[in-house]
Structure to design on (1147 residues):
């Protein structure tokens, strides 16, 4: 114990400034800067400025992130998050031709961003309305005036109407109010007028499509008519309304997807087409693809998707005669596919992408211009494209090249160039809801063997160990063979790098798996030792059909993990290295080997009350229950990590006395708020007995902000936002740290003394109330709000800990060293010599986040929800994994990497020095020997 | 902190000493190896406590030890129970805690309005001092033979120890700072010493 204490204090003294070294950045950390699933109608290839040769892919995702991605390598050029209010999921993204801005509309806000670097240009907000459509006015006169094109928006929810916004400033030029009560649908722009399409619901539940044409210059109403669509169009059945004069069409179907009706906007006649193959198999989905370019041909494609196959028909619209004719149809192919539209000059090309082929056709005739087999994907028929965008290069009548950015069914966003995968972005990870660490299998088996040895008597354990060693000998030849390669790799300065698919054990324990559950019901295994690459990716809906996995609970066991979800009767068991499902019997056979715990008490938050249960949570009634005082509601519950080793049971003071830590593995920290009084309270409970150990109240707190909390070892911390409307002595954000000791007196172990065992349920014969900790706490002001906090974990707990906090405003993660937030810092005076030797510094009410504490250095981490930490095999190092919108991982060494050689260590130089010294000794040794002999024989 | 106390003072004064009843209720373990366990766990009163919220003084009114065997495996819920709503909250403790060799202590956790929101049970070895009625604990406890009562109020959390703001008076100067001493006030002793030396030396000459 004393050795541990010594080590701990040694580790502590080393902890001066911790920072990321420049040569470690981007090597020890990895970052997936994600967007979310790109929306189909808000994704396009576009030149960032007029005359640019290269184009970028612009997208607005389902997480409402606007971003530009380089189509060459899939790297993110820029992104901006739009989140006006939490319940809005719909948004628009448009860019005018040869413009240097892109316009986004989400909720009631229209924002223009610089297309090349994502800088904010202007914003116009309509707080009481929602933007229903956004189009760029591609008019000749609008263009001739200036080079900035105006935008036309359609507002609904509250005030209905069409507005034209100035393209340079966002100011409203004119407004066409609509007080008819119809629901606005879309706007379409032709060369002469703006068509405003609204849906008028009839008494019978059908819809009538009303088209109003407006003067683009003044916004005055020119004409209005209603299409005879009664009885056929129902809510949700209007498929498409072309946005501009290249596709001035309105299309809708009936309920059973049997007939397709198309109208050219501006005329009152509708053409009716029968959906092909309607008799054989039910058409599930009809999608209309039309060019977006204003000067392209008015050709469009209708995509029919059945359960097992898909086909398409191409139509031509004659704008003069207002006639629509079917040009040709593309044959039915099995499986699911996607169609994309691309234009060069006036020509329109359709690209058909299926699981194994990319086909390019012209809109004019059905001849195939180019065909490429899809390579690089492991021939999995389950993988199919959902939607995408394409760019086609056509030279002399044949498609020279095609590249398509596709959203794939496994949640990846990929670019296929001529049938080959160029890059993939794991956009499904943007919806990470929970994540857990998983050990690698080799490590687990060894741990299991050691556990068996630990539970047997000495002789049996010895025999077991000898047997294990003999068994391990079979790996010896292979190990010997790999030795030269490893040594060479070591000297070359490369760490043993693994291929993308292979996960293998390393000596330092940096290679681990993280299993992430996403909000669309996927489970993804990431290899954190290899820059967080996706190892496996499974869809939980296939394992348990009909259940929505929106908030699954993952729990890791040896080699597998359990997935629990409300509505799921039995948990799913999944192999953590391969992602394959396991049967419950097999898992049971494995888990029977584990030693049984005596009595398990679990706790859970049920109806705003924290309750403890005997055994599993299915047990009938709670055995203890904590209900906060009336009016208070529980906002957070945090517990000590399941594996939280503590190296030293005491804290050595400067005068060699010891303050003993209050170490209770069952601590639970409950944070509550009282809305009426702007008060936040914290309660520290013993989760075995339900006893309340410590309670504290904070007044004048902004209770609408989050109160993150963390609990580790014998200390807890939480952060609060002070209410700005009340007269406080200070304002801003606070970080509170409290440390628990057995007694306030050094060298005193409190009532329990040195007892090794104690129970919080069974009575104790100690002289005083044993369960109570002695609490020291200190409060600091911090410059920024904290949204989440956690504590680093190391293998033995000898290394000093670091509090990892997420700062949502600066998109960063900061590791605050433990000694900075030590609640024993002397207040109002300089530390005495004894305190200074302990490492305590004078209390200052404000903690400034040192730039060296930022773990993310140059990276911007958007939307981090949570951080999880795990120990590595090296004591000095803790692995960190943050998820949310972005995925970020790194490793931290809060007391420096004292057990690892740095990158700057030159092994060759060391070897050369040793060799040179050896050679030197060889030469000098005879000389010295001769001199010694001479000195003995010479007469002084 | 005292301000909060003042705020709640009228409320607290309005409350007459209330009687709080602590109930116990046995827990059926998975293996019912005790025939003494009642089949239906109905909460039975353990202690009645008179509690005065204005003074935070509590005294034991009645105490009925729980029935059944005081074995470690027999668990009891100890807590507050509302018979009207059958709402229950409290802690779990082994029935062995009620054995005679332990000094029991009921802990009442009280919020600022004087409501008891949680209870706790602690035991300690019966020593001679505790039998003599020397109760420890920071709360105001009332000593009885069978059971101690401790009232624990919520603590106000620590506030940041801010530096004192610099207060200037209307003239823009620091308040309370003494005016600068004049040259004479500061160095009168040098002058006096000089004069003394002069006198002494003059006297020496006259001799």
């Amino acid at each position: 114990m004393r050795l541990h204490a010594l080590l701990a204090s040694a580790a502590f003294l080393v902890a001066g400034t911790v920072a990321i070294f420049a040569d470690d950045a981007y090597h020890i950390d990895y970052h997936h800067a994600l967007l979310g699933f790109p929306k189909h109608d808000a994704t396009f290839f576009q030149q960032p400025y007029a005359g640019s040769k290269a184009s970028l892919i612009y997208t607005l995702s389902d997480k409402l992130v606007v971003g530009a991605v380089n189509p060459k390598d899939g790297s993110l050029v820029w992104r901006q998050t739009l989140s006006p209010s939490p319940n809005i999921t719909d948004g628009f993204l448009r860019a005018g031709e040869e413009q240097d801005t892109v316009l986004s509309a989400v909720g009631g806000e229209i924002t223009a961003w610089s297309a090349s670097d994502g800088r904010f240009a202007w914003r116009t907000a309509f707080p009481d309305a929602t933007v229903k459509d956004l189009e760029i006015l591609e008019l000749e006169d609008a263009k001739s005036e200036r080079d900035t094109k105006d935008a036309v928006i359609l507002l609904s929810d509250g005030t209905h109407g069409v507005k034209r916004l100035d393209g340079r400033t966002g100011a409203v030029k004119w407004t066409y109010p609509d007080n008819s009560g119809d629901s606005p649908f879309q706007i379409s722009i032709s060369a002469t007028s703006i068509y405003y399409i609204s849906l008028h619901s009839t008494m019978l539940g059908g819809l009538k499509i009303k088209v109003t044409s407006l003067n683009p210059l003044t916004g005055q109403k020119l004409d209005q008519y209603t299409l005879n669509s009664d009885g056929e169009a129902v809510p949700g059945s209007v498929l498409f309304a072309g946005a501009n004069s290249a596709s001035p069409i309105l299309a809708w179907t009936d309920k059973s997807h049997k007939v397709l009706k198309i109208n050219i906007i501006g005329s009152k006649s509708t053409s009716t087409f029968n959906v092909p193959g309607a008799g054989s198999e039910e058409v599930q989905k009809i999608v209309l693809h039309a060019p977006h370019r204003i000067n392209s041909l008015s050709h469009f494609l209708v995509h029919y998707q059945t359960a097992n196959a898909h086909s398409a028909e191409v139509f031509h619209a004659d704008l003069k005669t207002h006639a629509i004719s079917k040009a040709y149809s593309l044959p039915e192919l099995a499986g699911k596919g996607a169609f994309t539209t691309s234009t060069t000059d006036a020509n329109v090309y359709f690209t058909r992408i299926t699981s194994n082929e990319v086909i390019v056709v012209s809109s004019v005739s059905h001849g195939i211009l180019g065909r490429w087999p899809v390579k690089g994907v492991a021939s999995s028929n389950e993988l199919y494209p959902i939607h995408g965008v394409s760019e086609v290069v056509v030279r002399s009548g044949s498609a020279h090249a095609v590249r398509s950015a596709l959203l794939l069914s496994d949640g990846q966003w990929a670019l296929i160039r001529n049938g080959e995968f160029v890059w993939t972005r794991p956009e499904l990870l943007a919806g990470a809801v929970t994540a857990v660490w998983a050990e690698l299998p080799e490590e687990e088996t060894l741990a299991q063997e050691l556990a068996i040895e630990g539970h047997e008597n000495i002789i049996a354990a010895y025999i077991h160990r000898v047997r294990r060693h003999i068994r391990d000998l079979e790996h010896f030849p292979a190990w010997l063979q790999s030795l030269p390669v490893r040594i060479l790799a070591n000297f070359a300065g490369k760490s043993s790098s693994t291929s993308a698919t292979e996960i293998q054990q390393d000596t330092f324990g940096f290679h681990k798996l993280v299993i992430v559950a996403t909000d669309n019901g996927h489970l993804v295994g990431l290899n954190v030792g290899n820059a967080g690459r996706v190892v496996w990716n499974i869809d939980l809906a296939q394992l348990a059909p009909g259940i929505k996995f929106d908030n699954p609970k993952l729990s890791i066991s040896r080699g597998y993990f359990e997935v629990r979800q409300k509505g799921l009767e039995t948990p799913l068991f999944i192999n953590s290295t391969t992602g394959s499902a396991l049967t419950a019997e097999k898992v049971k056979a494995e888990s029977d080997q584990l030693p049984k715990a005596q009595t398990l008490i679990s706790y859970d938050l049920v109806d705003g009350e924290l309750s403890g249960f005997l055994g599993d949570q299915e047990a009938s009634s709670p055995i203890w229950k904590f209900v906060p005082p009336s009016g208070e509601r529980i906002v957070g519950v945090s517990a000590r990590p399941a594996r939280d080793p503590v190296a030293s049971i005491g804290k050595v003071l400067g005068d060699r006395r010891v303050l003993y830590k209050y170490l209770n593995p069952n601590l639970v920290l409950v944070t509550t708020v009282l809305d009426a009084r702007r008060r936040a309270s914290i309660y520290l409970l013993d989760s075995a007995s339900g006893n309340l150990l410590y309670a504290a109240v904070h007044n004048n707190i902004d209770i609408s902000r989050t109160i993150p909390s963390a609990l580790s070892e014998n200390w807890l911390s939480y952060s609060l936002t002070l209410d700005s409307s009340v007269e406080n002595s200070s304002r801003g954000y606070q970080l509170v740290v409290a440390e628990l000791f057995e007694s306030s007196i050094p060298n005193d172990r409190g009532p329990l003394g040195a007892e090794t065992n104690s129970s919080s349920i069974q009575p104790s014969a100690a002289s005083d109330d044993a369960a109570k900790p002695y609490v020291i706490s200190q409060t600091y002001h911090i410059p920024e709000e904290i949204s989440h906090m956690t504590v680093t974990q190391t293998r033995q707990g000898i290394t000093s800990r670091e509090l990892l906090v997420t700062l949502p405003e600066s998109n960063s993660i900061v590791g605050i060293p433990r000694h900075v937030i030590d609640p024993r810092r002397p207040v109002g005076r300089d530390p005495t010599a004894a305190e200074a030797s302990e490492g305590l510094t004078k209390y200052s009410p404000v903690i400034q986040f040192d730039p060296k504490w930022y773990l993310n250095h140059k990276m911007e981490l958007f939307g981090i929800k949570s951080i999880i930490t795990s120990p590595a095999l090296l004591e000095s190092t803790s692995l960190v994994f943050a998820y949310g919108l972005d995925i970020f991982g790194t490793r931290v060494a809060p007391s420096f990497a004292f057990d690892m050689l740095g990158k700057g260590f030159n092994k060759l130089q060391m070897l050369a020095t040793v060799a040179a010294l050896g050679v030197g000794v060889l030469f000098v040794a005879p000389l010295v020997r001769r001199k010694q002999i001479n000195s003995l024989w010479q007469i002084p | 902190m005292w301000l909060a106390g003042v705020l709640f003072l009228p409320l607290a004064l309005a409350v007459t000493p209330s009687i709080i009843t602590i109930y116990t209720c046995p827990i059926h373990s998975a293996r019912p190896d005790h025939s003494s366990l009642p089949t239906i766990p109905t909460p039975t009163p353990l202690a009645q406590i008179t509690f005065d919220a204005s003074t935070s003084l509590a005294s034991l009114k009645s105490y009925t030890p729980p029935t059944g065997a005081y074995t470690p495996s027999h668990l009891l819920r100890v807590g507050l129970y509302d018979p009207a709503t059958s709402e229950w909250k409290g802690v779990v403790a082994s029935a062995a805690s009620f054995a005679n060799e332990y000094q029991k202590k009921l802990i009442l956790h009280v919020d600022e309005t004087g409501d008891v929101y949680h209870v706790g049970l602690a035991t300690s070895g019966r020593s001679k001092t505790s039998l003599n009625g020397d109760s420890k604990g920071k709360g105001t406890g009332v000593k009885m033979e069978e059971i101690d009562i401790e009232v624990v109020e919520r603590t106000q959390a620590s506030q940041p120890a801010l530096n004192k703001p610099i207060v200037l008076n209307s003239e823009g100067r620091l308040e309370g700072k003494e005016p600068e001493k004049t040259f004479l006030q500061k160095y009168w002793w040098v002058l006096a010493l000089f004069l003394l030396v002069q006198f002494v030396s003059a006297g020496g000459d006259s001799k």
The first helix of chain B runs from residue 2 to 14.
